[in-house]
Structures are given as structure tokens and as C-alpha cells.
Amino acid sequence: MINDLWYKNAVIYCLSVETFMDANGDGVGDFQGLMRRLDYLSGLGVTAIWLMPFQASPGRDDGYDVSDYYNVDPRYGSLGDFVEFTHGAKQRGIRVLIDLVINHTSKDHPWFQDARSDPRSRYRDWYVWSEKKPDNADQGMVFPGVQKTTWTYDDKAKAYYFHRFYDHQPDLNTSNSDVQAEILKIMGFWIQLGVSGFRMDAAPFIIATKGADVTKPVEQFDMLRKFREFLQWRLGDSIILAEANILPKDNFEYFGDDGDRMQMMFNFQVNQALFYALASADTRPLKKAMEATKPRPATAQWGLFLRNHDELDLGRLTEKQRGAVFAAFGPEKDMQLYDRGIRRRLAPMLGGDHRRIEMAYSLLFSLPGTPVIRYGDEIGMGDDLGLPERNCARTPMQWSTEPEGGFTKSEKPISPVIKDGPYGFQHVNVAEQRRDPNSLLNWTERMIRMRKEAPEIGWGDFSVIDTGNDGVLALRYDWRGNSVLILHNLHAQPAEVTFDPDRGEDGRLLIDIADGASSKADEKGFHTVMLDAYGYRWYRVGGLDYLLRRTEI
């Protein structure tokens, strides 16, 4: 049972094939290049890789406009290269998750081309059509300020088609049983090629009813169970990690009351509150978000993250909270996107302050769930705000001081490598940080190892410990008779806190597993700890013989 729930104590690394390494010399990352970097990922300690889209695509939306679900984009290699990659990952104990982009296809997909060509086409009902432009066509855009409508007229079809995203991405009619059967076939295909699961893109839109007469979409949650059942019949320990920016009251609809729908979801509620905490040193909304998302089925898990490949969406915060985050991390207009978020990478958002970056990632690794880190953040990569929309944070990985950062031998990579300023590849790269014992890269490797040795966080239950300081977060995790207690100071100045671990006699001794600064309680059972500015402490409660004391399930 525990092996089937491998995701409960995993560390997931998100990357894009096209930006990781180019072995072919054409300026585009490929699977051969990714194969050559598997040892790097293994050394870093990650247990799973999440690959952004790599299937055949015109590339208008970084591969999220798929034109063939059953093939690799030729720029990245072949299906043979992909199988060699999944095999290499398996040899190193790394699982592979891939993006499942099934809310829409590219308008170049043969299904859509056939559907628009003939109203009697078998694919006509695979998409959503209307003879007249619906009255609500100017509502519900995913990319406000960039996207003008959700319905576009097609001259050949002589009808309007629905697209929740860009007009080159027509929505699939996911209520259609034939479409659902095809989705299962797509999942089965990639599972057969070595994939361990999927990150389901835009999950709420996939299960929502669609059509010209739909004014309030209804979510078809049974669809999620259908996907889950099929996947686990094919591969028992495979998972779906759903992208669903939803309210806590809807969590069980996606997980399933019995844990029979999605195994994992990203915790957007905690993510947004976390950035408010980083901006304001006020952890109260973060504690509230963690408590609100605490209930979940025993087999379900949250995916926790700081930054991903999209904008930092702040739509769940209050106007005042959102203003504080914008002021701290994205004050300039070109740093913001879609009237709701920030498009920068983490390091420049935090001013390149390594103390603060380390504290932020330590905090991420200590939150209830499974940490998901993004390629390049382990070395503190920056962004290129001169690139459009979200592309500014999707620049190639910086491996060395070689030309183009060691990403490619080509002088013209598909996306420009960051060359100028403090985040240029000459200053921020893997090779130099690998040789520096005090680098962010080596710190991240140690942190991943420490996180994997604290399964209480992934498996256990958490309690918020009162420190008397809203800028210091104290979390205690309990699992199988053992506990860890973790402190974070979000203030820019040192803070002294006094607290009771609330673990009886065991709580009298706290062993620091990060740097050895242990703590003994006073006669009343209270600990007093001094934390540096942006400081943190990871404590084992009661001593280091916890493996001997761990109870059986």
C-alpha cells in the first residue's frame, strides 16, 4: 500500500524538454539532451519529473496546442528517444509524469480540420459549435487583456467554435463519450511507453459542460473517477496530478469522498497565501489556508509549489493582500500579467537575496504535501521581461559559462538564454555552483535529502504551534509515533520566540537536523529559540532514534 502511494513523500521537478538541453545543435532542447542530464537530476535527489508538453504541435502556445497526441514533436526527437528517456529515468529511480492537455487541441489537429470541413464529420461533435455568436462570448476568457472572446467564427465550418483559451485552441466537447474514450486511449498509450502518471491541465474546464446555451457550467465529477479507474487498471501506482484553482469547499469533489478521483492537486490556496506571507511577514492567512485545505482523503495529496511555468495567480487574495504582493514582487506593469498575476521567476522576485530564497524553499519543503520545484530555481535563475507573456520565465537552463550557457552549440536557441545582468549565465549556472559548497544548488540538494528523510511531512498530520509572533511560522508533524517541528522567520530582522511543542516528555528535546543547533526545554517545558532574519530550524522531536521508535502501521 505504501509503495502504491509513492507520491506522498516525493519531490517533483518540473521541466520543459525544449529548454533543458540541446544535443542536436539546432537550438531546441531534445530528449537526447535530457537523457544526458538524468544523472544531474538523480544527483539532485528528485524522485519524479513532470514534463511540460512535448507532443506534436505548431508551437503557438509552448506545446499546449497539441496537433497529435500520439507522437513526439520532431524538434525534440522520436518516440524511440522518449522510450529511451523513460527507461533511463526508471533505471535511476525517477518516475515520469507528463502533461495531459485534453481540454482543447490545436486548430491544426486533424480532428478539428475534419470537423470544420463537413457538418457530417464523425469529429464534428468532438468540438463545441454555435450557428450564432453567443451573448456571453466576451466572458470567461482565461487570458484577459490578451484574449478578446471565447467564440470565434470559422469560415469553412460556417459556425462559431468555443475556445476557453486562445482562438487557435478549440475546446474539445469532453461530454462526448467518444472524446472520453479517446482520452483514455491517450493515457493508455503513454503509460505503455513508461509514464507513471499525468499532470492534468485545466481540470475544471475539462469536466465542465460546454455550449452556446451554457450560462453556468456544471462540473461532471464522475468523469474524474472514470479517468482514475482506467489509469489504475492499466498501472496500479500511476497518478493524476490535477491543475484545479478551486475553493477549499470543492476539494473533495476532485479528490472524491472515498479518494476515488484525483490522487493529487496543486494547492493554489496555500500558494497565494504563501506569497502574501513572504511579502508582508504575516502568516495568519497562510495558516488559515492550510487549515482550510487540511481535510482530504487518506490517499490524496497536495502538490505544493512556489513558482511554476505560468504567472503567479493572485486571484484568490483580497484586494489589499494582492496589492501588497504586487508592491513587493511585481511593482512594474511589465512584471504583471492578465490583470491577476506576476510573471517573474522566484529569485528576482526576492531581490536575489539567498537568505530569503533559501527560507522560501525551506518553507515550501515543510508545507503539508509534496513539493514541486521548477527547473532552474535550484540555481536561482532569473527572467527576461523583454519576452512576451509567460515566456519571460521559460528561458533555457543555464549549465555553464560556455556560449549559450552550455544549453546548445547553436548560436540561435529557440528562446534566448539570459546573458545580461546578475542573472546572466556567466554568473548563474550549474557548473560553478556545483563546485561551491555554499551555493544554492548544493543547499537545495541537501534540503531535498532532508525532506525525503522527514516522511512525517508527506504522510503525517500537522499542527500549528503558537509562537506569539505572526511573522514566525511553527509547524509540527506527527506520524507513526514520531514528530518533526519546523520554524520559519519571515521577518527581515531576527526574532526570538518561545513555544511549547506540546509533545509531553519527548518535546523537552529538539534536535536540529539542519545544522545541529538543538534546543532543550526549560522547567516548564517551553523552548526559547533565536532565529536570524529569514532564518529557519528543522527539529526532530525527542532525539535521533526515531527510526527505532517508529510504530508499525
UniProtKB/TrEMBL annotation:
It catalyses: Endohydrolysis of (1->4)-alpha-D-glucosidic linkages in polysaccharides containing three or more (1->4)-alpha-linked D-glucose units. This is Alpha-amylase. Keywords: Carbohydrate metabolism, Glycosidase, Hydrolase, Isomerase, Transferase. One of its GO terms (biological process) is carbohydrate metabolic process. The keyword GTP-binding does not apply. One of its GO terms (molecular function) is alpha-amylase activity. Its EC number is 3.2.1.1. The keyword Hydrolase applies. It holds the Pfam family SupH-like_C. Coiled coil: none annotated. It comes from the Bacteria. SMART domains: Aamy. InterPro entries: Alpha_amylase, GH, GH13_cat_dom, Glyco_hydro_b, O16G_dom_2, SupH-like_C. Residues 14-418 form the Glycosyl hydrolase family 13 catalytic domain. Belongs to the glycosyl hydrolase 13 family.
